[in-house]
Structures are given as C-alpha cells and as structure tokens.
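Exercise 7.
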Amino acid sequence: MHNHFAFRRRRANPAAAFAAFALAIAGAVAPAALAQDISQSAVDNAHNFLRTRDHGSDILGFLHYTSDYHGHEFRRLAALGGGGFELVYRFHWNDEDFTDAAFVCDSRGNVNDIRIVSTTAILNQPFFFANAAIQVLGNLVIEAAKDKLSPAERKVVQTMVDNADAKALLLWRMRFQRFWGG
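Solution. The predicted structure, written as tokens, is:
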C-alpha cells in the first residue's frame, strides 16, 4: 500500500543545523559586532545595560515624560569607526507610539550620546516635557543622590538642571547607574 501523504526525508546537515542554532542563540543574547574594530565585549556591556526593562522605562521617562512605557526592543547595531558604535532601540509608549533612539557608544561600551532616529510623536517630542520638568524635579534628584556625589559631580548636575537639559541629565544618570550599579 502506498501512502500518498508520505514525506521524503531530507538528509540532515549537522554543521548547517549547528551554525543556524548558534546564530539564533547569539542574536537572542546580544547584538553581534559588525566589524572587527568593534569589541563584542563592549557591545555586550552596553546592550546588557540598555536592554533591561527598568532601564528602558527610566530612559522613556526622559524621552517622553509622563508617557506610559510599553516595552522596548533592540533594532540594530552600526559601526561608527575607531571602535565606536551605536545601538538602536525602539521604545513603545502610550497606545501605539514609538521612538527609535540610537545610543552612541565608545570603544568600551560607554554611552556618550543619544540620537533620535525616528518618532511618531507630534506634541510630546523627545526630551521636550522632561526639559520643562527638570528645573522643578532636578533639585529633588540632586538631593536624593547627595551622599553619593562629590562636590564636582554635584556642580555638573546642578548646571544640567539649571540649563534644563534632559538629554545631558539622562546621559549622566546612565553613567552613574552603570558605575554604582542599578
């Protein structure tokens, strides 16, 4: 009797299967470095910090102050030369809004700048409402961290608060969190 629904068995290629599995695991763990001048450990260092829910929610609070955090996801890695790179993440907020932010990193994985790639925002542009709220709330942040700040660090943060610069304050906060943990 002949089975019309029989499938022809394909010969398995163990090397190809392992390579596909390894690539899938690597993609799920951290973005792979694109060029030889980018250190995978630097990429992992930055990605491991940026990918957490707590940090994503915190970052969104600066990007779109008072908006509801609905998650964030890694989008891509781009080489910048000299070992530098940027990691792009999409932040989902409110009902259907999103903002793509590029975190510009040095060769050790330290975030030195944030560049907005795209956003669906119309009124709540990235950093706009946070800038407005910083002068009111900024001094509360300084007061909360006063025991961990040197006089020089306090002066720098106070200048950012006085200048109402949410982006600079977010970059400082990220450095502080990475150095002190959190």
